[in-house]
Amino acid sequence: PTINCHYPDICILRLDRSETALSSDLTVEDASNWHADLVRGGKGIHQGWAVAIDPGARASRTTLTLNGSQHTYKVVLDTRGDSMRTIAFTHAPGEPLSQPDIAQRSGITGTPDFAYQMTGDAPWKPMRVYREGGKTFIQFPPGGINAAPRLVVVSPGGKTTQDYTIIGDSYVIPRAVDDALLVGNEAGSPQIHITHGGTE
Questions:
Q1: Which of 4, 129, 159, 162 fits a 20 to 30 Å CA distance from 53?
Q2: Cα 104 from chain centroid?
Q3: Could you give the C-alpha distances from 61 to 55, 80, 105, 106, in angstroms and in order?
Q4: What does DSSP say about strands 2-4 and 72-78: parallel, antiparallel, or unpaired?
Q5: What does the pLDDT read at residue 95?
């Protein structure tokens, strides 16, 4: 997933409550322009470990890696767009313990493609959808992934319930998707229609 955070904001990445980590397990590629600290909250929703992300005035895109007690996190840090002040990771039982490697930004298949449009409204409506490295990423707002909407891929391949992986706050589909639906789990739940408006 990608976290937008720009100077002078400080953004907080909260880990799952069952996760623990050490400061020595936290690395940032561009340590001269990005500062990251492992912190621990003690009460209520803030209980548990978190990473405080502090970009410098000259910060640009980089990668943060954290080897936690249960999961390995690989997160792209970017200064473009509005800062995401608080982000939370939640994990479902049985999901993979590590994220796939971030695709190299070489050629068309390695460049994020954000040419998606969404219609419909729901509390869990994704913040954005993009393709990168032959995969489709559906990124939910903080806490939105807990709603676990059903994903139906319309194209390519007809209306099928598509296999996907939950990684942090995102659904990751192992192919490029052109047309899909997210359907809530309750009777009469809203739908979000996702369509791709460009070409790779």
A1: 129
A2: 17
A3: 10, 8, 12, 15
A4: parallel
A5: 53
Checking DSSP bridges between strand 135-139 and strand 150-155, what pairing results, if any?
unpaired
Tell me how many domains the chain contains.
2
Residue 55 CA to residue 73 CA, distance in Å, equals 19
Q: Which structural domain range is residue 127 located in?
A: 108-196
**199 CB-side CA count, 13 A:** 0
DSSP string spanning the chain? -EEE--TT--EEEEPPTT----GGGEEETTTTTEEEEEEEE-SGGG-EEEEEEEE-TT--SEEEEEE-SS-EEEEEEE-SSS---EEE----TT--SBPPPPPP--SGGGS-B--EEEES--TT--SEEEEETTEEEEEPPTTGGGG-PEEEEEETTSSEE---EEETTEEEESS--SEEEEE-SSTT--EEEEEE-S--
One domain, residues 69 and 122: no
* Domain membership flag for residue 97: no
Q: What is the pLDDT of residues 140-170, one digit of tens each?
A: 988 888 888 888 888 876 555 557 888 888 8
pTM above 0.70, yes or no: no
